[in-house]
Amino acid sequence: MAESYDSQETHGPYDNFQVGDFILESGAKIRDLNLAYATFGTLNADKSNAILFPSWYSGTTKILEHAYIGSGRSLDPERYFIILVNQIGNGLSSSPSNSPAPFHQIRFPQPSIGDDVRAQHRLITERFGIERLALVLGGSMGAQQTWEWAVRFPDAVARAAPIAGTARTTPHNQLLVDTFIEAITSDQAYGDGWFDEGAVHRGLRRHARLFAAAGFTPRLFNEALWRDLGFTTVDDFVTGFVENHFLPQGPNDLLTLLRKWRGGDVGPHGGGDLARALARIKARLSIIAIEEDGFFPVADIEAEQRFVPHSRLVRIASAWGHLALFGLDPAYNRAVDAALSELLAAPAPQEAP
Amino acid sequence: MAESYDSQETHGPYDNFQVGDFILESGAKIRDLNLAYATFGTLNADKSNAILFPSWYSGTTKILEHAYIGSGRSLDPERYFIILVNQIGNGLSSSPSNSPAPFHQIRFPQPSIGDDVRAQHRLITERFGIERLALVLGGSMGAQQTWEWAVRFPDAVARAAPIAGTARTTPHNQLLVDTFIEAITSDQAYGDGWFDEGAVHRGLRRHARLFAAAGFTPRLFNEALWRDLGFTTVDDFVTGFVENHFLPQGPNDLLTLLRKWRGGDVGPHGGGDLARALARIKARLSIIAIEEDGFFPVADIEAEQRFVPHSRLVRIASAWGHLALFGLDPAYNRAVDAALSELLAAPAPQEAP
C-alpha cells in the first residue's frame, strides 16, 4: 500500500536530490539521504527569484502545488522559481517506510526540524547554487521549517511566511501530539513497530479522528460545511476524507513526523532563549495565523511574533480552521495570496532604503 | 477499587432515594433504580427555596459541594435547601459498576439525560413534596440535565443556570465524545466489556489525556498554571491530576455517561425542532459560558441562547477553561457566584410585575 501511495503517479512528477550520508543533530546517521522535491518556473540569472516551500505533516508536495501555485496566484511560476520540498520522513523523501534494511521502520534515525533545514540548505546551494531565498514559506510543520530557516540561516532568507505554526512547540501542542502518537502506537497490530502492511489501520483511523476533532473547527462540523466536499454525514466525512487521507501512509513515517513536530524549537540558536533566537532573524516576516485553528491558536503565534523584528501578524479567518491550509476555502486562498503578494512586493529589511 | 472509590467515606455523607423499577425512554428497565443525593440547608415552609444541582461527567456530588456551596456563597445553605444529585451511571447512583448481576456492567441499560431528569423529578416530588424549584443549575453534563429540566418540566423550574453545556450536543462535540469512548473501548483489556478490576487502566489513562488536551485551555499548559496545584511538569500534572481523577472510576460507568452525554438533546420536546423545544421554557435563565472552553465553545452556547425567552448569556473568562467548573479558579468562582446571586434575586418570569 505504502509503495503505491508514495509513487510518482500519485505525487509526481518530482526529482530527487541525493544528499548522501547525513549526520543528524542527534549524532545518528541517515544513509543515502534523499530529498524529493518539485520545481515550478525558472530560476533567473541572478538567482533572486527562488521560493522554498517545505511540506507539512502527513502531506507531500503535491497538495502544496494544487493549493498554492498557479498563474495569477501569489506563487506564480511565471515570476518565481518555486521549490517544493518533501520533509524527511514523509514517505517520499527518505523515510522509515522507504529505507533499506536494517535502517528502516523503527530503526530509521529520528530527524529534527533542524536536520530538514540543513538538508534543504544543501539542496538549494549544491543543486541550484542559490545563496539567498526570496521567500521561505510553509504551513503547520512547514511553518516550523520556515521558522528554523529564518533563525538558522538569517542571511539566506530575504522573506519568510510561517503559516499556522510556531517556532517552538508549546506544551499544549506537545500534549496533543502525544495523543496522536499514542493513537497509533496503542494499536495492538503496531506491536513493537514491526507490523504487517496495512495492519495498523485501527490506529491510523483513531489518529485521524483525534486529528479532526482537535484541529478542525467546531463550525466545520456544526454547520455541516463538509457538505461542500460532497460528504453526507459527519461519519461519512471523517471516514471518507480524514481516515482516507491517513490510511495509505506509513505508521512509522507518521510517528517520525510527529516526534519531529513535537521537538520543534529554534531556541537552541539563542542558547535556549526563544527571544534571543528569534532576534537573529534578518528576514521580513508575515506571520500568518488562522483564526479558530485548534492546533496553533492565534494567541500562541502572537506570543512569538512579538519577539520578531521586521514582522507583522496576519490573521486569516476561516471556518475550516487548520484545514484551510489545504486550499479548500476560497476566502482563505484569497487572503493568503494577498498576504504573500504584499510580502513579496516589500523590500527585504537589508535592502530597505 | 471501584468499591472503595464509590464509598460514603470518599463521597459521603449522602442519602439514597429508591426510585424502584424504572422504565427508561428507550423502553429498557433499570431494576431498583437508586439515586444518591446530598442536601444542605432546610426546606422552608412553602417549599420555595429549593435548588437542584445534578452532577457532571465523571464527578460525584462531593466536588459540587466543595466548589459551589458555602455560607456567604450564592448557594448558601442558610438561605436555600440545596439538593445535589448524582446522575445515573456515575458510580454512586445506580450504575454498571454497582448493579447486581445479570444487569450490571455492559448489561446495565443505557439511560438518557431525559431519564435522569424524570428520576430526579420523582425525587423532589415524592421525597420532598417540592413542586417547583427556585433554581436548577449544573455544569457540563449537569448543564444538559438543567436544560432538560427547563424544557421538560417548564412549570417546575423558576430559574435555571446551565453552565458550560448545551441543550443539544453538537456534531463536533459528539465527535470528541466518540474519541473518549474509543480511548477506553480500544484497550485490549476492555475486551468485550467484561474485564478484570483495574485492568483497563491504559484506556482510562488514554481517555484522561485526550480529555485534558481537548478540554482544558492551551494557556493552562503554556503558562504552566498547573503549578498552582503543586505539580512539577506537564506530565506530572496530567498523570497526578487528570489520570488520577479517572483511574478509580468504572470504565463502563464512564462509557454509560459518555453515551448519555453524546445523546443529549431537548429537541424531541419540540418534535425534533430545537427552537420550538427551547420556546417551551418558562424559567428565567442565566446561560453561562466559559471562554476558551474546548468542549463547549461560547459560540455553540450563544447559538442556543438566542432561542430562549427570559434568558441572558453570561461569559466568564478563565485560564482553566472547562476545568474552571471544578472551582480551581477564584476569579471564576467570584464570577459564577455573582451571576447566580443575580439570578436568584430576580423574579421568575411568571412572577414578574
Automatic annotation (TrEMBL), chains A, B:
Residue ranges annotated for the AB hydrolase-1 domain, each copy included: 69-326
Gene3D superfamilies named among the record's database cross-references: alpha/beta hydrolase
Active site as annotated: S140 (nucleophile), D293, H322
InterPro entries referenced in this protein's UniProt entry, alphabetically: AB_hydrolase_1, AB_hydrolase_fold, HAT_MetX-like
GO molecular function: acyltransferase activity, transferring groups other than amino-acyl groups
SUPFAM superfamilies: alpha/beta-Hydrolases
Positions of transmembrane segments: none
Keywords noted in UniProt: Transferase
UniProt xrefs under NCBIfam families: PRK07581.1 (NF005757)
Name of this chain's protein: Homoserine O-acetyltransferase
Organism: Methylobacterium pseudosasicola
